[in-house]
Specification:
The protein has a 6-stranded antiparallel sheet with strand order 7-8-6-11-10-9, sandwiched between helices. The chain has a 5-stranded antiparallel sheet with strand order 2-1-5-4-3, sandwiched between helices. The chain folds into 5 domains: 1-43 and 285-332; 68-181, 2-Layer Sandwich (Beta-Lactamase), CATH 3.30.450.20; 184-282, Beta-Lactamase; 335-445, Beta-Lactamase; 455-615, Reverse transcriptase/Diguanylate cyclase domain (Alpha-Beta Plaits). It has 627 residues and is α+β, with helices and mostly antiparallel strands. Helix 1 packs antiparallel against helix 8 (286-304) and helix 2 (71-78) crosses helix 3. Strand 14 (386-387) and strand 15 form a beta hairpin.
Length: 627
Amino acid sequence: MKKPLKLYLVLLLALIAILTVAAVVYGVAKHQLYDKEILNHQKQLHENMQSLLTDQQNNAITLALSLTENPLIQEVLINPDDSAENRKKIATLVKRINQQSDFENLWLQLINLKGDSVYRSWTEKTGDNLLKIRPEIQDMLLDPKPKKVMSVGKFALSFKSMSPVFDEQFKLLGVVELITQFTPMTKELFFETGVSSVLLVDKSYKKQLTRVDQNSFLNEYFVANTDAPSKLISLLRNQDLQGLLNSKGYVELNGYVVRKWVLNDENGRVLAYWLTFMQKNKMSFENASWVLQKYIFINIAAILLLLLLTLQFINNRQANTEKRYFRQIIDSVSDIVYITNYKKIVDSNSHFFEFYDEFEDIEAFLSKYTCVCDTFVKEDGFLQRTINGEYWIDYILKRPYDSHKAKILRHGKTHIFQFKIKPMQVGTQRLFNVLMQDITRVEEFKERLQKLTVTDELTGVGNRLACNESLHHEIERAHRYKTHFSIIMLDVDHFKLVNDNFGHDVGDVVLKEVASVIFKTLRDIDKVCRYGGEEFLVLLPETDKHSAVTIAERIRLAVSELSTSEVPTHITISLGVANLTNWDTEQTFVKRADQALYRAKDLGRNRVEVDELTAVSEQPVPDDNAH
């Protein structure tokens, strides 16, 4: 009896010792794992912030580039003292961009070759020279190429996206500058993650911020985002703000996990501090607690039952724990994540079935589809089951730095996903981790922005940027397939007299009616663009000289038949026709049509003329290399 009693006593002491050690280990592990969970949240938050910053800058520079092609902006840079009407139209354009985009209070500034500000959308003040206070403008004028700058001015911290403006001869006219604010990004961050922000401009800029509300300073730091919650401002007033800004990592403060992110300019100088406030009670620590408890209990059980458990059982139990922990991780990701062994799906997170909501599990999904790729919409430019003979997974893996998008139709709505694939090794099995990120809203915004920048605001037809892109494409196609391609350059006769006699508003009505008549006269494959002022360019793919002249005559007659109920006076147009040759470029092609237009004007207007080279050519010039 003594031996079993002694054994029980040893086991009891061992159990007490194990529980004591386990309690200490549990406390240390809990702190470490909770800290790791918070750091993972912070890492994801930082990625969201970086994405917002990058998207804001890229969208702004894209818009700035598109505005450089706008004839109104070019005219203001050329004739800043005689452009009141153009300034009003530019102001209307800026208002439309603010209403139809996510920028919120975007500002536009035009700067001439002397460095003088000749237009500002937020104030009527112009004429001041910016070269001494804005060295980046001097750099832009010396080396004209698009530039993105984050800086502090008189009004606030902002992004400045600059692009050079050139005329048709590639002569530099000046600079377009778009100024965007930070508040839309802090709002978007709160909308996506629930994280609040306080953006503090560094105190070294206090004297420079002369055009701001002085009540918006926190100690010597200016609060740059208008959506900063007042309760967080009050909380910061009662803290050692300088100590907080000097801290490394995160700080727990009154139930918030607070993290400081430093914003620097291109020279590394500190501009501002982006403070993020995440409510700790809204953060999920279930994953950490669950792992800790299972870890401790499984290890205790393993030690106490060491004689009864086999090594295989321990390994299996540990593998199951890791699998459940992995399940918690992938379910916490906001995007769709699934695992495939290349042939079929073997696992997925819960968001997979939120999207494919008619299926309860993987087996149900696989009963209808062999692969997610079976749900892709077949459309050029998007992922398909096979691309150029390659299986879509192989295609993505060979091009890891490209953007891979697919369209998927669900419940009558088209979704656009960006796909990323990472190979992973689980034991002897090779698997692939597939991330599906829903970028539908981003793509819709890009499409709206693109439409806004290629459409003429007044007439509703394409603007000069759209015209140049279509012209380039059609010339390449005609050269490649040896087909005819013609263009018509047309101009409203005596349009200046219409403006002088009836005013610019009536002149705008004339341009709208002329554009409408042209559009109704053309075929589906043809295009019409407002090339500038009262000039229009018509693109006629697969059209020879004779057909182009017929179409031009039809347009001329239709315009001349406009009644006085639509326009106040008899309107006529002059037209010049040109047919593409093998040696034509975009510039020479348009120039020939333009020369024919001017000959039509010189010969009395209200007529169609064919350029001299087209007039003697019945067919496209033969290819010298053809046999």
